[in-house]
Amino acid sequence: MKSVIIGTAGHIDHGKTALVKALTGIDADRLEEEKRRGITIDIGFAHLELAAPGGERLRLGFVDVPGHERFVRNMLAGVGGIDVVLLVIAADEGIKPQTREHFDICRLLGIRRGITVLTKSDAVDADTLDVVQLEVEEFLRRSFLDAAHSPVIGVSSLTGAGLDDLRQVLAKVASEVPAKDSSALARLPIDRVFTMKGFGTVVTGTLVAGTIRKEDELEVFPSGKRVRVRGVQVHGEAADQAVAGQRTALNLAGVTVEELARGMTLAPPDTFRPTKRIDTRLSLLTTARPLKHGSRVHLHAYTMETVAEVRLFDSKELRPGDEQWAQLRLREPALLLPHDRFIVRQFSPLLTIGGGFVLDPFPSLRKPVQRDVAAFLTTLTNGSPEDVLSARVKRRGVSGLPIRDIPAEMNIRPEQAQRLVAQASLREWDHVLIDGRVFSYVSKIVYEAVKQFHDANPLVPGISRQELHDRSNLISKEKMRERVPISPEVFQGALNHLAQDKSLEIAGDLVRLPGRGVVLKDEEAESKKIIEQALSTSGLQVPALNQVLAGVQVDKARAQKIVTLLLRDKVLVKISEDLVFHQSALTNLRAQVTALKVKGTARIDVGKFKEMTGVSRKYAIPLLEYLDRERVTRRVGDERIIL
Questions:
Q1: In contact, 282 and 324? CB cutoff 8 Å
Q2: Integer Rg of the chain from CA
């Protein structure tokens, strides 16, 4: 059954809640104060099933919003996820201030379908109703509610007049709404949080994308709290899953009511991340005052509200009726993704002044160049997915774009990201993408850093990888004016590229220009091989170093120099005065210890360590102290905590 969300909009006391009740039989006013005062204060909900013109069954979820100017913030929390708006105008009052504000909000949110309903038609005569209808049609001309393609229907919730016609039009309009993507990454903006006896914590919201099932693990944004879905309800009925476009209630385990609030969002874990800066296309209403660079505004997106500072890119002021690129800097972190719509309201007094859509939820921290920002944001607005990915990778510069970050930056599933990467003409190293030209430039920087080192140290056979990485970052900062460092993955990719190209040589941990290494004589090279083999094959139970050196073909002094070379290249590692291990044995040891934590063992003592490795105490103590120094473990009393 297709699900469509219908939202009301309109001035206070124009009959929105009465209309919803007349259509569905459900009173959306749930608060005692609402019933006592006779006005809607917070968002309410109802549902209805109708048959589409083609016979398809439609499940309509109604979000009823308050019309009072003091509760526009609550209205905004409900209207964000709707598909169709019912713009409600009382026939005995006509267009009023909140009629205009709610209509502006719907336009700014990009709502494309709606029905204009003239309520209280029984309270006026036919001539007055005709005059009001003409006034309304003129007000809505050339908008998405233009009477040429969106009907204006007169009804009376009291007598029932016009309700059947409204239901027929509702079914027709709802049947034309494109189905939301249930295969996308799920997002549920929370609009209510409460406790139900026998169930515990319950949240509700309109599922704007994806599917949520029982027993799913979700993450609460922006707090990062992990929760489990114990139960699902759709439009008040128990279900195995909720899909995009449905009013959804979730019974959650692992969280208390105090840890949740309206404005938070539920989404799959380890996929998205919250942000405090968004690059946008910002529009200002013709009725608003000019908006100055640096102004503070109230920002509303779905059920979230926060204060934001406006940083304009094109000029120091945004004029009424105009739009331009802007960055909004949020007071609190929020989960916002590309193409999310938002509303901005004047800081004081509270008036809706504009809105827009998110283009980049993770803008560069570098001071933007106006020309570059405009080109980048234009690509995000109009470019193909391949163009957008290439632009995002290029924007990352020498740090590259980890493939794991693509779903959050582009709001696509990990499988889609992998397919996009396979089609893109980009360099990839260790799951990090980098622009081809930037990669070539990084390779030149790395080569230059090695050459500079040799020029300054002609007698030293090579530079360590870490020192080379640090020197390359310095050159990158000076020449490319990069504020971000070359990522380890991009650096290693450039290094391997230069080694394959035979522009550089890599010997263990040392990097050098070809021909600048230490040249060993035949017997020295053979002795080096014997030392390496003796220590690599013995694992953790290494023989004493003097025993190993006794079996080589060179004198003691030259044998010691060979050991020094192996230590410098980090082929061998000295962990105590008497014990030298091959690097491979220590790498395997680290993996063994780390695997213990993965399996649930967080601590280890000397006895367990000896049992795991098969070594005596003579080896166990120095090895554990080595792991402490390497921050694999931390000693607490007689035990080690695995970090």
A1: yes
A2: 33
Pick the CATH number of 2-175 from 3.40.30.10, 3.40.50.2300, 3.40.50.300, 3.30.450.20: 3.40.50.300
81 and 2 in contact (C-beta within 8 Å)? no
Q: How long, in residues, is the chain?
A: 643
511-564 confidence digits (pLDDT tens) = 989 877 665 677 877 888 888 888 888 889 888 888 888 888 788 888 888 888
Locate 223 and state its tokens: 């707090």
CATH architecture of 522-642: Orthogonal Bundle (1.10)
Q: Are 266 and 254 in contact (CB under 8 A)?
A: no
Find out whether the peptide bond into 97 is cis, omega within 30 degrees of 0: no
Contact predicate 9/106, CB 8 Å? yes
pTM of the shown model: 0.76
Residue 76 DSSP code? H
Q: CA–CA separation, 11 vs 93, rounded Å?
A: 10
Each residue of 630-642: pLDDT tens digit?
Answer: 888 999 888 999 8
Q: How far apart are CA 536 and CA 540, in angstroms?
A: 9
Instruction: Return the CATH fold of 437-512.
Output: Arc Repressor Mutant, subunit A (1.10.10)
In angstroms, the CA 548 to CA 562 distance is: 12
Topology of domain 275-360 in CATH is: Elongation Factor Tu (Ef-tu); domain 3 (2.40.30)
